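Input record (Table S2, row 358):
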Amino acid sequence: MPVIPHNRLTFGDAECEAVAQAVRSGQWAQGLRVQELEAALAQTAGVEHAVCVASGFSALRLSLGALGIQPSDTVVIPAYCCVALANATLAWGATPVPVDIEPTGWNGGAQAFRAAIAERRPRAIIAVNTFGMPCEVDQLSSAGVPVIEDCAHAFGLQVGEKWLGSRSEVGVLSFYATKLIGGGEGGAVLTGSRAIADYVRSARDYGDQPASAYRMNDKMNDLEAALVLTQLKRLPELIWAREAIAQRYLKEFSGHGVSVIYRLPANGQPRIWYRFAVEMLTRPAVSVVAELRHAGIQADVPVYDWRPAGGPRAPIADRAYRNLVSLPLYPSLTRDEQDRVVSAFLSLCAELGKAART
Ligand SMILES: *Cc1c(COP(=O)(O)O)cnc(C)c1O
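Output record (pyridoxal-5'-phosphate complex):
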């Protein structure tokens, strides 16, 4: 039986045609399609300005630049997160300060963030909507330090009065191929601040500017923009397809080994189901991933532990890096494939249950 991949891209004729049209137009570099995408993103997020850049990493790095980051500064980030957050900070010679997360939703908690703010007086905080679970931006925004909301896993959702990406000074997006909206590569900065938008618009380009180590050609191109625009138009459909699969997993996995062998992801609403990350309670994630791959299911460890040894204590982040297993979840996962994921996971957990009892 064919292996079920951890990610499979969702696309159809619309995506193919959009890119073909962009190719035929003879406008391949940053052009009208990037402009059109910026308008569409600003509208989707309910923000004044959206500026497209080369990647999520570019969006993070240039957001920090717009906030005036200096080499002597610190940036508070979750201890459990994509290494891009640390790298974007290090790119300015500044210091990332990882703070521990909370086990419900695996996001940084307001309390830990506030303690780190009081102690370190950082230039900025980066909060992440991990796996699609909205982080507590409101409680951070009042602390007097600018908040960057990383929406790489969650976009197109309203939380309370506001859309994700509009809840703080800056929102950032990634359009890496396997993200919620794919464009191959690409990213965007969302903001209500004209000054921040102007900075990013200028800094992404080095043309006709004095020599600088900080202008790194962070532009998005029109071929990527054509792809992202097409995916953005079908975002509600993509979100709904993920939701339906996640709800099925939650139902299928709610008996048997739950809370003994594994713990299910938080189903607090509203959320986006970018990843379905199960916490294994009796075996480390790497061994469970190996077993599932043996059964033809490409599960994966969702986040790689980038932290240098000897850093601040973060027991819950340690637990997340060690125990979380991400199961295949994407709009093109067929009903049959879902059946296979469910049965492989449940039979592995039944074995783990037997092993735990003897
Ligand atoms: C993927 C990702 C990034 C980086 O985006 P790239 O486009 O790959 O540079 C940043 N933050 C989070 C949470 C991500 O998942």
